[in-house]
Amino acid sequence: MVARLIYGFRISVLFGLVLTAFSSVVGIMAGAVQGYFGGITDLLFQRFIEIWQGLPTLFLLIILSSVVTPNFWWLLGLLLLFSWTSLVHVVRAEFLRARNFDYVRAARALGATDATIMVRHVLPNAMVATLTFLPFILNGSITTLTALDFLGFGLPPGSPSLGELLAQGKANLQAPWLGLTAFFVLAIMLSLLIFIGEAVRDAFDPRKTIGQLSTATGPANEAGAVAQKAAE
Fold first, then answer.
1. Given 52, 112, 174, 208, which is the most exposed site by the fewest CB atoms within 10 A?
2. How far, CA to CA in Å, does 116 sit from each of 9, 34, 100, 121, 190?
3. Planar angle of CA 32, 75, 145, nearest 5 degrees
4. Single GO cellular component annotation (predicted)?
């Protein structure tokens, strides 16, 4: 039981991190192109994303699982097709807001290319809002894998996973420790990942860093002003 919990925890975290990383790269690129260029490009991308998000993901997974035996990379690639859209709207809004700022116009006037402006000037300002959503995307990826394993459409039979342990607990109600152990491990893991994601967001937030620096230098500035006034 402990061995299956450890391996299930490792597979869940690895699957969530890899899927979140790939989804973030694709979603940030798509949202950056939409927000920076706008116009007909933004309109066409938005219509495509609305149609793509309307597809029944769970039904497609069930149909494809009945045709092909799923494995780790197969599930990762299939879920990547639908998970990248979660960040597009946030990044698009940040790029739409920042593309008319003075520093972007100055960089464009100095001859910087669109790719340079997007990567070096606009993207760092959009990362704070992006990092806010990453913990929820990570938890959603782990929950999706657990749900598929619980329904029998996830990893191959016999693979150690938290969803498979929950299915065992459901099938063996006379042994409640099976389901309860997997449930508490899953709940604690998701909570800790949220806390870690919030800490990473705070660490990379430039506004919070500036606020801490101004708070730290505030008493020194006040003391200097008092000393200067006394000298006068």
1. 174
2. 40, 16, 15, 8, 37
3. 95
4. plasma membrane
Least Cα distance to 163 among 140, 138, 186 occurs for 186
Single-letter residue type at 217: T
Task: Give 107-133 pLDDT, tens digit per residue.
Answer: 888 888 888 888 888 888 777 777 778
In angstroms, what CA-CA distances link 211 with 116, 166, 202, 204? 29, 46, 12, 13
Does residue 156 sit in helix, strand or coil?
A: coil
3-state helix, strand, coil in the chain (%, to 5): 85, 0, 15
Q: Output the CA torsion sign for 152, 154, 160, 166.
A: negative
CA separation (Å) from 92 to 45, 48, 108, 136? 11, 14, 19, 18
DSSP H or E segment with residue 2: helix 2-37
The conformation of residue 85, written as its DSSP 8-state character, comes to G
pTM of the model: 0.77
Report the top-level CATH class of 2-231: mainly alpha
Q: Supply the mean pLDDT for the chain.
A: 80
Q: What per-residue confidence (pLDDT) applies to 110?
A: 86
pLDDT digits (tens, 9 = 90+) for 133-191: 888 888 888 888 888 888 888 887 777 888 888 888 888 888 888 888 888 888 888 88
